[in-house]
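Instructor's aside before we start: the two examples that follow are unrelated to each other. I chose them only because their records fit on one page, so don't look for a connection. First example below.
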Amino acid sequence: MRNDLSDGMDDLADQYINYLRVERGLADNTVQAYSRDLNRFFQFLESHSLSPLKVTQNRISEYVSMIGNGLSARSVARNVSAIKMFFRFLAAEGKIKCSPARLLESQRLSRRLPGTLTPGEVERLISQPDLSNPKGQRDRAMLEILYATGLRVSELVSLELLNINLEAGYLRTLGKGSKERVVPMGEKAMKAVKEYLSNGRPHLTRGNNSSYLFPNLRGRPMTRQGFWKIIKKCGRQAGIKKNITPHILRHSFASHLLEGGADLRAVQVMLGHADISTTQIYTHVTRERLKELHEKCHPRP
């Protein structure tokens, strides 16, 4: 049964979510995650008959300690981030004088080095689709684009025909926060896309006038799960023992560029990272590989 406290929380949550979408420009997945985190926090407050406008720092700390017993460190860190941002929003809107979460320590996570493939493994993976049939041509084009551009899988499956410029050799994509970026494609990716557009796509669309580059039979874009199954299958066929995911090609794209001498800021732009510190994790990967090479090849490691 609804009560004034519940209704008030729902109203605050709606305002906050709108703020995240419109003013902060956060991606839908991030907004949905923050919304779930806030709902969990509100359930805690409601169980103690507390309003978000009157909760104390001690109560918030109690909540963080409580969820720390059941959630991963990464989930707790995201919950803390969502709560801190929520109370900053309330303070900025004049609903509270100052944030009771302002002294709440953000959870520091050890940054895991992303898994990558060697150039040889990438070649084996990309060569798996059977180019004698339309689906194989589509799959090869998708793999080539992913490795050539470092797109996120969500960006790959949402590409439209107008996003591709085969004459100039680049594509446009909307990343997190609906921020557009332009990324060069490379000759091999362009060749695979041309082959797919000329021969594969017409058979797969069956006359459907879809605007998407990789549509399903209903003209809608392929799902992320659909492509995940494709890359997993190619990984098995290639005999690669690593955990093959769409993101591993994005990681490999960045690592291989840096290993080849690319500028860190150029890689940041191509990946669509808002903060260069996110891109810098790939420099750790290259350093680790140099260390392994040194230990393996130096006469006095």
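Example two begins here.
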Amino acid sequence: MKLLAKFNLILGLVLGVGLALAALISHHLAQENARAEVVRQAQLMMQAMTAARNYTTQQVKPLLVRQQEHLEKFLPETVPAFAATESFASIRQQYPDYDYKEATLNPTNPRDRAADWEADVINIFRNPANKGQKEIVGERETPTGLSLYLARPLVAAAPCLECHSTPDVAPAAMVRHYGSANGFGWQLNEVVGAQIVSVPTSVPVAMANKAFTTLLASLAGVFLATLVLLDLVLLVTVVRPLRALSNMADQISVGKLDMPELPASGKDEISVLAGSFNRMRRSLERAIKMLEG
């Protein structure tokens, strides 16, 4: 096997092992980064929904309550949860894989009633041992696979009790619309529900796989470019000088001494070896002339 081929084999094995280790580490990091990015997006969405709730409570509700009393008709736009849910519907057009729900243990609107797994999340926030916990990030099994969720507690503040303390103090239009059986009995500062943003884990997995494929292709390209560049450098600096030395040794072995000297201007090992061959050729040439004379 030629020297360049041996070098390519050794370097290929070394770089191949390095590429495999880099791929293994990169895949793990890509998975973690993609999951963290999805969580960050969910947090931004949660902040947006909280802003929609606050705006509805502070700006929209005071205006519509008067109109609601005048019309004697309940306007769901006065409810912060309704505003947040409807606002998320617009966001979902850009992020169809994400879902948002204001899951509540005892809601006025049946669509907000917590499912079993959502009730479990809410009860974690309600547990006195977890008092002060502001956020939960977790995974759960669904019929379509794993789902990642971000949850934050919904605490009954003073404005909430205007509608959810007892039916007799709640807006009459709301009671007529939803009835008096659900959505009442809330206590001040009680955790009554949770804001939950969920997304299938296939989303971060797809993001990670895309990033990993791009990175792996880049690493493979760098690997090949490095190998070609090193081959060119070795060809010029090592292989060609050694080939010239080999040719000189072949010529000397058959008694041909009338050949130009090899360049030996450098101080590296190849140049030193070339200088040694030149001296050896000159010494043999003088020795042969002495014998012939």
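The chain is about 65% helix and 10% strand.
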